[in-house]
Amino acid sequence: MLYNAALILKQKVDEIPKLDLPWPPLASDLTTDNVNKVVPHELFNTLAWICGLSSEPVFNEFVKINSKENAKLMSIAQDLVNLASKQRNPSPKSIALAMALRQLTGSASVISLLSGLGHCMSHSFVLAHETALAQLHVSKDDIIPPGFICTVPTTLAWDNDDFSEETRLGKGTTHITGGIIIQRETGLPGIFEKRESVPRKKSVVASSQDTKPYFIGKRKTIKLKEAMHGNEIDESHYIEFQIDAKKKDLAFCLCRCLGNRNTLPNWTGYNTKVVSEQDIPAQSKIGYLPIIDGSPTEFSTVNEILRKSEKIADKLNLRYICLVFDEAIYSKVQQIRWKEECYLNRFIVRLGDFHTAMAFCGAISKLFRDAGLTVLIFFKFMLGKFLVKMGGQFQSNA
Questions:
Q1: What is the reported pTM?
Q2: What does the pLDDT look like over 77-126, one tens digit per residue?
Q3: Are residues 197 and 80 in the same domain?
Q4: Phi and psi at residue 335, in whole multiples of 5°?
Q5: How far apart are CA 296 and CA 176, in angstroms?
């Protein structure tokens, strides 16, 4: 009877159609729906009955078990299907685990070890997959990742992406520019284009990117008084928006002074608890933009960043788009933006939060340097050194 049951399961496994995915498969292809396509419910139910996870005699669909046990059982079932096909029918788990190991460890030995145990695809498959992903990225002309939505407010963040290779003289290292696109989740369908399979190759030829040279010439500075004409910047116009936040801060200070500090969370935890669910922003969706082969410290690369950002805004049907940079790139972006009218009226350029705080602290130190701030910092530094020295003497005497 057991032998006959095994033959029935083997027949069901052999009848599984090969997972029809464009090459190379992407993360969006390795979904639960595709897992259910490669695992017959007869095999899954048999394993659930053997492991005692279910006693329900279901024959036409997957038995109902909790999500944690379902994930483990699906993992085992995919290993069995992959083993039965001699890795000719890759399962989503075997592909995803191999690529994750490649990114986390970069070790061919680890991948080969788990592949030999039947848990994931081989190292040669991983290399072919990575080559195909690079070829797919180079071959497509679209600069917006799939899934992003038109007319939704969008932020682009650009920064340098240096490889920092070890060279003999410390020169000749790779300096490129990378970017990400950020949108709030809205639940609406994004832009998806039909994807064709990429030819299988052992190597990929990088496409040449011709970045047009840009000469800044005579620098132009914007007149802030004229730029802010018609906009109310006086603090009295924003008091109404600050009332609620000031009340919450006052309540926090009173609770910390008069209440039990052990039961009251810190400032961040306090504001997390008092905020309403309606005020919690939706989760952001993040995608990677094509790499620009050039250092962001060059004006030609910065101009290419602005050109690509304008192209993204046009494709998303956005009148304005927000750009985020660090201090080094921000200064060069503004120099170009103030000279080019098309960029000045299209981009909202801002510093990242960390670099904004750095600039704010630098402004404070410059304004109050002559008021004794420099002496105070020096005194604090010397006091710290004295305390460290005295602490070392106390330890040696003890």
A1: 0.69
A2: 999 888 888 878 888 999 999 999 998 998 999 999 999 888 889 999 99
A3: no
A4: -65, -40
A5: 7
Does residue 205 form part of some domain?
A: yes
What pLDDT is recorded for position 395?
Answer: 46
| Residues 305-344: b if buried by 16+ CB within 10 A, e if exposed | bbebbbebbeebebeebbbbbbeebbebbbbbbbebeebe
Coil, helix or strand for 319? Answer: coil
Lookup: tokens for 285:
């969706």
Q: Mark the ranges of the chain whose per-residue pLDDT is less than 50.
A: 394-398
Cα–Cα nearest to 95, from 104, 76, 82: 82
Whether 268 and 235 share a structural domain: yes
| Confidence (pLDDT) at 140 | 64
- pLDDT recorded at residue 394: 42
**Domain final residue pick, 91, 109, 139:** 139
Per-residue model confidence (pLDDT) at position 182: 94
Q: What is the pLDDT of residue 164?
A: 67
What percent helix, strand, coil does the chain show, rounded to 5?
50, 10, 40
User: Using the 8-state DSSP alphabet, how is residue 59 labeled?
Assistant: -
CA-based nearest residue to 219, from 302, 338, 331, 327: 338
Instruction: Tell me how long the chain is.
Output: 398
Q: Are residues 172 and 318 in the same domain?
A: yes
The CA–CA distances, whole Å, from 100 to 67, 75, 105, 195 equal 22, 15, 8, 23
Beta strands per DSSP E along the chain: 154-162, 175-184, 284-288, 321-325, 347-351
When divided into structural domains, the chain yields a total of 4
Examine residue 362 and state whether it is found in any structural domain, yes or no: no
**Same domain flag for 323 and 387:** no
Which of the 8 DSSP states describes residue 370?
G
Residues 350 and 372 in one domain: no
Peptide bond into 290 cis (omega under 30): no
Cα distance between residue 156 and residue 147, in whole Å: 15
Domain that holds residue 242: 225-278
Residue 144 included in any domain: no
Neighbour order of strands in the sheet with 347-351: 284-288, 175-184, 154-162, 321-325, 347-351
